[in-house]
Design goal:
heterodimer, A: mainly beta, six-stranded mixed beta sheet, four-stranded antiparallel beta sheet, 10 strands, B: mainly beta, seven-stranded mixed beta sheet, 0% helix
């Protein structure tokens, strides 16, 4: 199965770091791991992606396990605007067909 | 760039009517995707195009659904006849170069309600 496994929901406090886990135990060696997020009433937006090495950008960091069977999206300081559904996605053989799960709904408390 | 533009933002129609959803991708992008989102099934890929040519329509649920991309700046998703179970949010997304690891840029979606 090409879908990943994520917790249904998580909660964080404002200005604290958030670690969003994702399991992709059946990932193949050439599949990238993508993260998107969806704010209420909006389309998904790209957050970050990676293959083997940890990745950083202005939005977040992506930590990929050495065996690549799991990864963690890290928001270094959560803000109220980070409240969204976060999707962890892997390629499904055909690189154009990203298979989306139901994601993790992140609530951020003030 | 204005991003991916979808219209209408909301559509309410009666069962049996034809519905046409529209999408303008980001200029220069060579891939266009149509997705459907429901609470139960999440985001589902319906069809995608590369350089205006349909590549994979295996996600299109039935013959009632059809999609076209007459040029690089416009695509439509048509449902005829519409049914209540088609009620969902439909998203269009575009990307560049199709390396497989490119970013997808999504529109704001069309909220479709079929009564």
């Amino acid at each position: 199965d090409a879908k990943t496994t994520q917790p249904n929901s998580m909660e964080s406090n404002e200005e604290e770091p958030v670690h969003l886990p994702c399991n992709h135990s059946t990932i193949s060696g050439t599949d990238y791991i993508h993260w998107y997020r969806q704010l209420p009433s909006q389309g998904p937006e790209y957050v970050i992606h990676g293959l083997t090495s940890n990745v950083n950008n202005r939005m977040a960091s992506l930590a990929i396990a050495e065996d690549r069977k799991s990864s963690t999206l890290i928001l270094h300081r959560a803000t109220l605007r980070d409240a969204a559904v976060y999707y962890c996605i892997r390629n499904a053989g055909n690189n154009r067909k990203l298979i989306w799960g139901l994601g993790t709904s992140l609530a951020v408390n003030p | 760039d204005a991003g991916v533009i979808q219209s209408p933002r909301h559509e309410v129609t009666e069962m049996g009517q034809e519905v046409t959803l529209r999408c303008k991708p980001i200029s220069g992008h060579d891939y266009l995707f149509w997705y459907r989102q429901t609470m139960m099934r999440g985001l589902e890929l319906l069809i995608y195009f590369n350089n205006n040519v349909p590549i994979d329509d295996s996600g299109m649920p039935e013959d009632r659904f059809s999609a076209k991309m007459p040029n690089a700046s416009f695509s439509t998703l048509k449902i005829q006849p519409s049914e209540p179970r088609d009620s969902a949010v439909y998203f269009c997304a575009s990307s560049l170069f199709g390396t497989g690891n490119e970013k997808l840029f999504f529109g704001s979606g069309t909220q479709l309600s079929v009564l």
